[in-house]
Amino acid sequence: MHYVNSKSILSSKNGMNLYRGCTHGCIYCDSRSAIYNMGHEFEDIEIKENSLELLKKELIKRPKAMIGTGAMTDPYIPLEKRLKYVRRSLELIHRYGFGFTCITKSDLVLRDLDLLKKINEKSKVVVQMTLTTADDELCKILEPNVCSTSRRVEVLKILNKNNIPTVVWLCPILPYINDTQDNLNGILDYCIEANVHGVLCFGMGLTLRDGNRQYFYKKLDEHFPGLKDKYIKEFGDSYSIPSPNEKELMEIFKRKTEENGILNDTYEIMDYLASFPQNSIQSKLI
Questions:
Q1: Three-class HEC string of 19-59
Q2: What secondary structure letter does DSSP report for 100?
């Protein structure tokens, strides 16, 4: 790990990244792409040392809104257990009356359940959890350094019991690996059990570009011999890698989510994640 000082911490849409890089080891990770100009080894976590000072200054002057994190780096990487940058940011978000949403694969989010509940009582919290496979053994290959799918589902259930809404990211779906009806039905059954508010699905497939493509192919050679050549032959250098089973899988996805009252429209879910409640305690005080 290494430290840097940053000029700002919140984007124009109130997104923040306290860390850059990740040690979860997910074989498909788009954040490895060269387009993001990481400038350091992906596993050498960059820590924005002055991020909490910046966050406090920006929260004081910004209109109340949802603060989001996790789009580039999972906020609950193992380093967070010791550094507690996310936890301290939650304390600030609570103090200044903002809402919070994050994308994670880690059960470390439960460490902060007390703060998440306090923020949710004043405004709004939504925890977003990525699920790629219903098979814990396959999960160990695809996402080797993070908790299993079954554990993530336990986390979703605990959050639901504490009245914290959740959204599942159903992605990526890797052609010839997890693009099966059994896998999709297994994930959706988990979502139903956990009473998730919505499931985000951007199609059945994944994206590959310079940086993450090379890492992904290296891992295919390690765990799925011969599959890399099939990808190269079928998809070439395409950015979008659709599953040949996409049509039937999307039909199952739409039918099963609608039958169980789970939001499945991408734009509707994104609006839900971004909307700050007008009836929040802080809004009433203004």
A1: EECCCCCCCCCHHHCHHHCCCCCCCCCEEECCHHHHHHHHH
A2: E
Of 27, 22, 32, nearest to 210 by C-alpha is 32
DSSP 76: T
Which residues share a beta bridge with 125? 100
Mean pLDDT by 10 residues, the chain (286 residues): 95 96 97 94 96 98 97 96 98 98 98 98 98 98 98 98 98 98 98 98 97 98 98 97 98 98 98 90 45
- Rounded CA separation 23/144 (Å): 9
Q: What is the model's pTM?
A: 0.95
Distance CA(235)–CA(213), nearest Å, equals: 12
pLDDT tens sequence across 101-159: 999 999 999 999 999 999 999 999 999 999 999 999 999 999 999 999 999 999 999 99
Question: DSSP E strands: which ranges in the chain?
Answer: 2-4, 15-16, 19-20, 46-48, 66-69, 99-104, 125-131, 166-170, 198-200, 205-207, 240-242
Give ∠ CA 54-125-193 in degrees, rounded to 5: 145
Q: How far is CA 36 from the centre of its chain?
A: 17
| CA triple 137-147-136, angle to 5 deg | 20
64 within 8 A of 98, measured Cβ to Cβ: yes
Helix (H, G, I), strand (E, B) or coil at 102: strand
Tokens of 166: 């959740």
- Per-residue exposure over 133-163, b if at least 16 CB sit within 10 Å of its own CB, e if not: bbbeebbeebbeebbbbeebbebbbbbbeee
**Beta-carbon neighbour count of residue 213 at 10 Å?**
22
